[in-house]
Specification:
266 residues; alpha+beta; Phosphatase 2c, domain 1; six-stranded antiparallel sheet; five-stranded antiparallel sheet; 30% strand; globular; disordered C terminus
Length: 266
């Protein structure tokens, strides 16, 4: 049996379906998630298992997001979140140095901020943000990991040593100096978004995720969980699906001939 947290949240603009799971091999869940549709803010954090108190590190990011002041302007909101995360990074480094003799207390972060027609992804580490747009899946974030660096350098997956797959290059709390990457994008009213930890994307390929995201939101989140557990769930796995309001409670079928979405009542 797995230890899991499932969280349905809805607002007039967006619905969120989220799930965080210990998996089948870990003793504790060091992942965390947050959905604040009223603030246009969603995040997933994955505590670094090789350090100490990864669960406390990821939860600290959630608490930060819960307390964040809501700004109407997307740029102001992004800057406020970034400044808060950088301050938390400083505090976590100081706390680890004082309490754990310099051992790392750290977590990845991927955050989605949305305003009408616009969005921003802010991240550190290998937790990801995907956008399902026009029937195709796009990865908006770019992993800060040794594995991704090797791919960027031209190596094929077969050429990359297996031990590099879990080595991240950036995380909140890992080093005193932290740079968060940000990607702005145009947001369409029919777009859907998936935030997830590496416990999801290491088990489910992007091509599979594209097919899953084409389903109704409730079917999609159920299938992600099912596949992770079927494939052994060796790590904690966490995901948040963000969709236009109303889709999570109704069936959905894509009508490619009309280029639109049809809502199907049960």
């Amino acid at each position: 049996m797995t230890d899991a947290t499932t969280m349905p949240i809805g607002t007039d603009g967006w619905d969120s379906l989220g799930h965080s799971d210990t998996g089948l091999c870990r003793q504790i869940n060091e992942d965390a998630l947050l959905a604040r549709p009223e603030a246009g803010l969603w995040l997933v954090a994955d505590g670094v298992g090789g350090g100490c108190a990864g669960d406390r590190a990821s939860q600290a990011l959630v608490e930060l997001g819960q307390q964040l002041h809501i700004c109407a302007d997307l740029l102001d909101q992004t800057m406020e979140l970034e400044e808060a995360v950088l301050e938390l990074n400083r505090q976590m480094c100081l706390y680890a140095a004082e309490q754990w003799a310099g051992r790392v207390m750290a977590t990845t972060l991927v955050a989605l901020l949305l305003r009408p027609g616009r969005g921003v992804c802010l991240w550190a580490g290998d937790s990801r943000l995907y956008r399902w747009h026009g029937g195709a899946l796009q990865r908006i974030s770019h992993d800060h990991s040794m594995y991704q660096s090797c791919l960027d350098a031209g190596q094929t997956p077969a050429e990359i040593p297996a031990q590099l797959k879990n080595r991240i290059l950036r995380a909140v709390g890992a080093k005193e100096r932290l740079t968060l990457d940000a990607q702005a994008f145009i947001s369409d009213v029919e777009d859907r978004y998936l935030l997830c930890s590496d416990g999801v994307h290491t088990l489910i390929a992007d091509a599979e995720l594209q097919s899953i995201m084409a389903q109704s939101p409730d079917q999609a989140v159920a299938q992600i969980k099912e596949l992770c557990l079927q494939r052994g769930a060796p790590d904690n796995f966490t995901y948040l699906l963000v969709t236009p309001a109303g889709l999570a409670c109704n069936g959905l079928a894509d009508r490619s001939d009309a280029g639109s979405t049809e809502l199907l009542r049960p």
